[in-house]
């Protein structure tokens, strides 16, 4: 942290305690742990962000999946 900045407080978060979640059909607020649905066949996915999402977030995702593999039957 820059030395010349003042912060109200510092919060330490142990990322090992965070469990990845995924939204499952048919509502975005229906979520479960990613581990529960690992290996599930997908026909399509939707990538979006919350209200505070930024273009940079979606651009980063696009760079990650660019050139990725698709199922042979996918158009």
Task: Return residue spans where pLDDT drops below 50 for at least 5 consecutive residues.
Answer: none
Strand count, sense and barrel status of the largest sheet are:
2 strands, antiparallel
- Count every helix, treating DSSP H or I runs of 4 or more residues as helices: 2
Number of strands: 2
Secondary-structure element string: EEHH
Silhouette: extended
Decide which structural class fits the backbone: alpha+beta
**Helicity range of the residues?**
10-25%
The strand order across the widest sheet is 1-2
Beta strand %: 5-15%
Radius of gyration: 18 Å
Q: Quaternary state, please?
A: single chain
Mean pLDDT: 82
Separation, N- and C-terminal Cα atoms: 48 Å
In short, what is this structure?
The chain is α+β, with helices and mostly antiparallel strands and 75 residues long. The chain is built from two helices and two strands; from the N terminus they run ββαα. It is extended, with a radius of gyration of 18 Å.
């Amino acid at each position: 942290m820059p030395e010349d900045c003042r912060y109200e407080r510092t919060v330490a978060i142990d990322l090992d305690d965070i469990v990845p979640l995924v939204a499952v059909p048919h509502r975005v607020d229906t979520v479960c742990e990613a581990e529960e649905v690992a290996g599930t066949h997908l026909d399509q996915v939707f990538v979006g962000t919350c209200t505070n999402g930024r273009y940079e977030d979606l651009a980063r995702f696009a760079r990650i999946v660019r050139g990725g593999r698709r199922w042979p039957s996918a158009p």
